[in-house]
Amino acid sequence: AQSVSQHNHHVILSEAASLELGCNYSYGGTVNLFWYVQYPGQHLQLLLKYFSGDPLVKGIKGFEAEFIKSKFSFNLRKPSVQWSDTAEYFCAVNADTGFQKLVFGTGTRLLVSP
Amino acid sequence: DTGVSQDPRHKITKRGQNVTFRCDPISEHNRLYWYRQTLGQGPEFLTYFQNEAQLEKSRLLSDRFSAERPKGSFSTLEIQRTEQGDSAMYLCASSPRTGTSEKLFFGSGTQLSVL
Fold first, then answer.
1. What are the helix and strand counts (H, E) for chain A?
2. Could you say which residues from 30 to 59 on chain A have a Cβ atom under 8 Å away from some Cβ of chain B?
């Protein structure tokens, strides 16, 4: 069975600090990888995804993530966070099933202080 | 905004009662998903429809749970004889038919509290 671990449950940063959120998954086969974000009072929305090709993927709002297959990791990064990045971030994995049976991590709450 | 719509936003019920939630996907999205999220956890997959056909069900979906998507448009999720452990946020998501790069559009969810 697949599983996803997000190591940081709560992260507090000042504006302009750099961000890296860890995500590790367990699954031996081909996977698709995702980061979803939930801003306060809003619904979950896709931040970025990896299906194949370049392991460094870029998403919305300056976020990027790198798929390192040997480490089973898909860490999320942003060089300089803004107050508006305050949100909960979820990493998710999907075996190559042809539909979105996602397995999510427990999430990381990011608070960016102005 | 013609996003995924869920109704009601909140539902409080007593243990043993039946509840039904509705999800209206984005128009022309032929795939519809239900997920459940409990406090401190990420969403968990419950079930998936392609058009009106329910193609996958999680083991989390006990026989007290039933989901339908008549005519391949809106979907309902019914929970019979609710238990306190059913308290959670029930999320609906839809997606258009795509190739390999499918993207889910989530609704705001229905928060169920079972007393």
1. 0, 12
2. 42-46, 49, 51-52
Contact B42 A52 (CB under 8 A): no
- Which of B104, B105, B110 best probes binding to A when mutated, by most A CB atoms within 10 angstroms? B104
Is B106 in contact with A44 (Cβ distance < 8 A)? yes
Strand boundaries in chain B, DSSP class E: 5-7, 10-13, 19-24, 31-37, 44-50, 53-57, 65-68, 75-79, 88-95, 105-106, 110-114
pLDDT digits (tens, 9 = 90+) for A60-87: 999 999 999 999 999 999 999 999 999 9
**pLDDT tens, B10-65?**
999 999 999 999 999 999 899 999 999 999 999 999 999 999 999 999 988 889 99
Question: Are the Cβ atoms of A103 and B45 closer than 8 angstroms?
Answer: yes
